[in-house]
Specification:
Elements: H1 2-10, E1 16-19, E2 24-26, E3 32-34, H2 35-49, E4 56-61, H3 68-78, E5 84-94, E6 101-112
Parallel strand pairs: 1-4
Antiparallel strand pairs: 2-3, 4-6, 5-6
Helix pairs in contact: 1-2
Length: about 120
């Protein structure tokens, strides 16, 4: 969050942002990062450093109680002024010898209509 706030003060802008925040962490001065408390502020700060015509935003979360739907709506709110497509889901591993699925993370991706869909890549 501090990095993004500093980038805003510097006037930096980005066409794309990849977010992979931890569930919990501590900064060098004892600052506490908690996903549920600070993710709205992080998304808002990221929105403020996006270029006028951003291409993508990718958010991945591990070991959190949030659902892909929750993250979908958070990114949808963040990107409300930019037309694009949002995809959300679960990342996981399928057991090689069976049909079980081990959930690893949830993700949400916003992609500008100008950038094309991820399957076009």
């Amino acid at each position: 969050l501090k990095f993004v706030q500093r980038e805003k003060r510097r006037g930096s802008t980005y066409d794309g942002i990849i977010l992979d925040p931890p569930k919990f962490g501590r900064g060098p001065r004892g600052e506490v990062w908690e996903f549920y408390k600070l993710i709205p502020a992080l998304l808002e700060a990221c929105r403020e450093v996006l270029s006028p015509d951003p291409l993508f935003v990718q958010l991945t979360a591990y070991a959190v109680k949030a659902s892909a739907v929750t993250m979908y709506y958070a990114v949808d709110e963040m990107m409300r002024t930019h037309p694009g497509t949002i995809t959300s889901g679960e990342l996981g591993l399928r057991e090689e010898s069976g049909s079980r699925f081990l959930s690893m993370a949830i993700f949400t991706r916003w992609c500008s209509h100008k950038a094309g869909s991820p399957k076009d890549s």
